[in-house]
Amino acid sequence: MRKNTWINLGFQVGALLLALLITTLILVAVGAPPIKSYLSIVKGAFGSTRNVVAVLITWSPLLLTTAGVLVTFSAGLWNIGMEGQMTMGAIFATGALRLFQNTSIPPAMIIALGILAGILGGALWAALAGALKTFGGVNEIFGGLGLNFVATALTIYLVFGPWKRPGVGSMSGTQPFNKILWLPTLPGTELSLWSLGISILVIGLVYLLLRGTHFGLRLKAVGKNSRAAFLMGVPTWQYSIFAFLLCGAFAGLAGGIQVTGIYHRLLPNISNGYGFLGLLVAMLVNYQAIWAIPIAFFFAALNFGSVQLQIQYKLDSSFAGVLQDLLVLLVLLGEGARQKLMKRR
Amino acid sequence: MNVELREIYKSFGPVHANNGINLKIQAGTIQGILGENGAGKSTLMKILSGFFRADQGEILLDDRLVSIHSPSDAIHHGVGMLHQDPLDFPPMRVIDNFILGHKGGLSTGQAEANRDFKKLSEQFSFFIDPDAYIDSLTVGERQQLEILRLIWLGARVLIFDEPTTGISAAQKVKLFEALRLLAQQGKTVLFVSHKLEDVEGLCTGVAVLRQGNLVGEVKQPYSTKKLVEMMFGKDIAVGERNPCSADDITVSLSKLSIEDYRLKVREVNLDLHCGEVIGMAGMEGSGQGLFLRAVGGMAHTVGGKILIGGRDLTGRSYQAFKKYGVAFLPAARLEEGLVPGLNLTEHFILAEKATGFFINWEKGHLLAEKRIKEFDVRGTPENTVESLSGGNQQRALLALLREPLNLLLLEHPTRGLDIESTIYIWNKLKERCKSGTSILFISSDLEEILQYSDRVLVFFSGKVTPALDSTTLTTEKLGELIGGKGWTESSSGGGE
Asked: Which of A48, B59, B278, B351 has the fewest CB within 10 Å, making it most exposed?
């Protein structure tokens, strides 16, 4: 057992090195100095307090989407619809804030209601994907993808239609909310300790849920062999739907926080790719929620750090995505190779 | 070709599948490799044929040390293996399969291959149409094709892993003739089996494996008693049948009708007594499977009633049936019964009633240890279920059942298991019966049905006999009924 752990680790480190090698080659190919580029990513992420704060701001929604994906992964479901669920969370949160902003309800309460509405929105959108899968026989990948487009379209409709700014609607979103409806942040920064705290709490809960509860074990049984789980008495479709609900709730929470904590309005593309990025993190950590914490942080740092590349070397900041995708791909490849080799020996 | 295996070691995690095995086999002989499930037979053979690599040990062919890293290495050295499930490509034609794996240039040499195929077929008196598609062949014919293919590829050592499973009696005779011919031609034949009868009738010598060790080698003539002792390390008495005594009726079916898209089972009446065992015989797909699942609440009924312990559960879900003490053990253990990837402890926790929100791992571990001991499962609480052998998976499934049960439904409870496991499992089932559980089981093994059932139902294309007293039945009589002979109008419809 011990030996296997080391071999696993060896393969993962190997995959990391290979991913670095390939990205280095790409950097050389596009004419950027590799070492300096990497250094500028590191500097971009940790060069100043401001940068570290920005990384932390990115980290928090990524933790939430990763937590959600881990739940559906365990149930054997590919919830590709996180983006849509997060968007729906943002829409619901915006709706709630708009509804209550001119009432006498205390602002703190309105913020809480907005976030709760976000959770509800995400959960409902995920439940729709789950229902399509369970009752309609629509594969969750197609259902989720379709619902992503619907959610995006709905955002654009709202931003340019019923919720448009006074005057002309614009891609920059709806009219920002009054400052009293902003999630409190650390003075002088955009970092909300609430958002960070909630995110870490959620990933911790998912860790406990999957590791130490009957619910988590049953979820895993459903994911690995739903027929056998059914015969053992696990209500399988209910568990699938519940996994969707939970995942959607986390995504919706992330969406709600984007609205109340970061943008203070609804804008197109508010999900910012966190849904897909969460999927990558979850694949990389292979069901182990505890590892999602550092890996999500690493991804967040890469994402923000690579903004520097754009400034210094005119490389698109999506360069971080190249490294992230390569890493996931190679780790999965390494895992496949490892299994093949272990079988042979 | 002479084969010599020296000090072969192979472990899978904590399990020592092969523990320093030494074996010499002369060319021109048929060497039996005998052992119960999980004894290490298949592992040893897979090492010889390149599917696994040994942790330690040497392989010598004609006294020359060889290193075999893959099946294609093995065939290059003249070693070929026929697996339990033929490894062929169903959507392809016979001749294409034959050519596959042949080292050659771009041109496949169709004409030459066709000629060789014909010549070899004649030599072994196999009659397979080279243009037929693989899906249309029986398991026996696919085996024949595989034999021809391996010989054509130049195999001089042929390994057969449980080749008599799933083929007809006539095909078995033909297979044995072919094996004898191979031996006469000077080839080395290794015959892996847990069936004493086959080994005794065919092999020049037998090596017996038990728990990864070579227990000993025996030459003809064999003493069955000695072989059994070597296989299991102890005498095994065949279990006795339990006379039905209780008057209580645990399960009552009245005019039960079931339908699926191709089969109708009409108006079956049946009362199961406390502790009674009813076996169901019939060709695969004659309605017994549908009937069994309907009685467990897993198939839709179109008429009649199902009473379990006096409670009407007609039309209720599987969950309701489970709640009132009905359990179902499927034939496909890893597909339907167990969850691959989860270990035994996790299975026991899943099967128990959950108390509280959090799992008490310590308690689960203790429970797993206790049940593993009680049911003699060879594995640890941390073993994942797919790492267990078939017999141990079946023991684990039995160990997972909750107490008490009204009715236990079993599909092929001992399919693919060796004698020891079979007897063990039936002993455990009989213990269940003593505590009042009734058993309804499907088997294609007529001996098993006659030996363990109190009464027998025979199915033939949806028709059902009344429950027949098993003491009045013989395998011949059962065989006729299964084949659709000896049915009267009154015998369909079932009843007391």
From this structure: A48
